[in-house]
Design goal:
With about 350 residues, the protein is α+β, with helices and mostly antiparallel strands. It has helices spanning about 1-35, 45-55, 55-80, 85-90, 95-135, 230-235, 245-255, 260-270, 275-290, 300-325, 330-350; strands at about 150, 155-160, 170-175, 180-195, 195-210, 215-225. It has two domains: about 1-135 and about 265-350, no CATH class; about 150-235. The chain has eleven helices and six strands.
Length: about 350
């Protein structure tokens, strides 16, 4: 049985990784075309290539569930086309045993997803976004369209870029009173976190009075803020590119600030339950091979896998915003498509058995 497990694992994993490389490769080509339109004297071709290379772990993580579904269909489909699954059944091996042999390598895929999502993607994605923002902003205020906005009390903050080490670049702050009148506008070239506060460098401030303005320039300024380097490393990238622990911490911070945190809570549950989603999609793939797609071509299996995978992803993407509008928990929005896949997979396997 160990030989059988290794053989099935090889067929499934090799197909999954081939599909994953093809999908990620196509996605990077499309993104290169999109980024090429932003190339100028500051944001050069080498910057684009560096940005795309740093984004590879993020793309691998995003497309791993879809690739697991399609790859499993292709790998098992090859065995079915060569009548190897039929031989296994004739030798007395049950469908349940074959399913177990397929789910074992799926554990490796789920573990890979957890490692990428928790430890690799947050670092590489922050570095990718920061390097691109620095190249495009050239150290000027509000020159980077990829910077981040944040509100803290009566202060609105824009930061051009955040280094993985915690240094911030291009910090613009607008302070308003309760009547929404601007009191102070300031810009700092850079800042580092020290002794519980930010030490800003080369700060230019404009103070607004009723009948005049006053400009002040200092080399150093202490800025006390609830935004720590850890929290800043969270807001600089897309929620789905953050670590699970970072998402939970930032959700709690937004809740304490009285801001909407459902987007980050939804990303937290989506990433936490992604391994379960991979298992559910693989189960659907197995059930299709033993059921409706037993005797179709490889191309038809790929098309079916793409359709099922897109339906799964779109259902999660639609239920996420719906949870905010309707008012049900983001956990439910994430878990419903997974449960449906498990139910469909088990139902089809039971019929095939």
């Amino acid at each position: 049985m160990k030989c059988l497990d290794r053989y099935i694992a090889y067929q499934v994993l090799s197909a999954v990784f081939v599909v994953l490389l093809i999908i990620v490769g196509l996605d990077l080509i499309f993104e290169f075309v999109e980024q090429a339109g932003d190339i100028n004297e500051r944001y050069r071709f080498a910057d684009v290539l560096s940005y795309l290379i740093l984004r590879v772990p993020s793309r691998l993580y995003e497309f791993l569930p879809l690739s697991s579904l399609i790859g499993c269909m292709v790998g098992l489909g090859v065995l079915a086309s060569n009548s190897e699954l039929t031989v296994m059944r004739a030798a007395g091996i049950s469908i349940q045993r074959i399913v177990l042999s397929v789910l074992k390598p799926t554990m490796l895929l789920a573990a890979l997803a957890l490692v990428l999502g928790e430890y690799v993607v947050p670092v590489t994605e922050q570095k990718a976004q920061s390097s691109r923002a620095l190249a495009q902003s050239a150290g000027e205020a509000l020159q980077s369209k990829h910077g981040v906005w944040h509100r803290e009390g009566g202060q609105f903050i824009h930061i051009n870029a955040v280094d993985p080490g915690g240094k911030i670049h291009g910090v613009t702050r607008y302070t308003f009173n309760d009547q929404r009148q601007m009191l102070v506008s300031s810009f700092a070239v850079s800042g580092v976190y020290s002794e519980g506060a930010w030490q800003l460098s080369n700060v230019v401030s404009t103070i607004f009075s009723d009948d005049h303005t006053k400009t002040k320039q200092v080399e150093q300024e202490r800025w006390e803020s609830g935004l720590t380097p850890t929290l800043l490393s969270v807001i600089v990238v897309d929620p789905m590119d953050l670590s699970i622990t970072g998402l939970w911490s930032y959700s709690s911070y937004l809740r304490d600030q009285g801001l909407d945190y459902n987007q980050y809570l939804l990303a937290f549950w989506t990433k936490s339950l992604q391994p379960a989603g991979i298992f559910a999609l693989v189960l659907v793939a197995i059930s299709f091979i033993f059921g409706p797609l037993r005797s179709v071509t490889v191309g038809q299996r790929i098309i079916a896998g793409v359709i099922v995978g897109l339906i799964f992803k779109f259902s999660q993407d639609l239920l996420g915003p719906a949870s905010t509008i309707v008012g049900f928990t983001p956990l439910l929005a994430t878990v419903i498509p997974i449960i449906i896949c498990f139910v469909v997979g088990l139902f089809l396997l039971r019929r095939a058995g």
